[in-house]
TAXI family TRAP transporter solute-binding subunit (Streptomyces durbertensis), 339 residues
Amino acid sequence: MGRQRLRCGVGLSVGLCITLLTAACSQPAESGRSDTGDPSRISIATGTTAGIYYPMGGAMAEVINRKTKGVEASAETTGGSVQNLRLVAERQSDLAIAQSDVVHQAYHGKGEFSGKAVKTQTLMVLYPNVYHAVSLQSRRGDLNCFSDIKGKRFSVGAPGSGNELATNLVFDALGMSPDKDIKRQRYAYAETASALRDGQIDAGSWVVGEGHGSLRELEATDALRLVPMCDDEVAKISKKYPFYNKHVIKGGVYSTVKKDVPTLALWNVVSVPTHMSEERGYELARTLYENVAALNKVYEAGAEYLVLENLTKSPVPLHPGVLRYAEEKGVKIPDRLRP
């Protein structure tokens, strides 16, 4: 699994970047060694260097390395959510940051994981990802609802990413085909932004937290146009895939977008394999939740969401370790999330 050096383009301080680089660039993890008390390494599967997952995973690794004895953690660059769950299944990663739709499919052996269910549980619930269908105000053509992208040149996300999966599910719920109804491109965020600037595509998808750094960088040179999900589209998508929730991007979140834009959102979680011991899960959950201030420095917009009470947003059962920790803190966990 390839690793790349962390870039400090997401609002990180110099000092924090140095510590994240140290954590993220340590040696690859040895999988399957998760028993508390044994010297072990933990691999955290994240995403591309252009997204939030990678610096978030770097911050997690840095916290674990500082606060947990006998453990060496490292953040690994990956293609995103789908690949991350596959790495968990293959015992190549111990923690995986992923979107809840991917985790739901992996757990139930559906979609991208058809016939190959992944034995996984949730250790943390992070923050919601918001579906952005992005064009530029300089582009001609009416894009009043998401379905108006039919016939357009559209980037669905990098191959194997949670972004691509989310877009495919949106297309499916709306009775559209990414193979037939659009001129499909499969770019990561930075490539999508470049393609928009160069006029190579008409629009593209970002499934990210609001105020994502790559979108702010894009609007520094080109005014954004966010394509809305109209009410009937939201209804169809959330009915077929209930892990999608109605969401509104408020006007002003992006300086070039003045009006509210209706869309969808889903939660990001930290997945772990079911073979991770209860003690190790408890130790990691306690360490990370008691040091969320360090994680919030990476993505301040997600700070309000990174609380124990949001464990109830998990799309699959919780790991016994975080369940024990949450109950010690008085958080009520519904039966559907008990392993």
Remarks:
- Residues 63 and 291 are 7 Å apart (CA to CA).
- The radius of gyration is 19 Å.
- The chain has eleven helices and ten strands.
- The first strand starts at residue 40 and ends at 45.
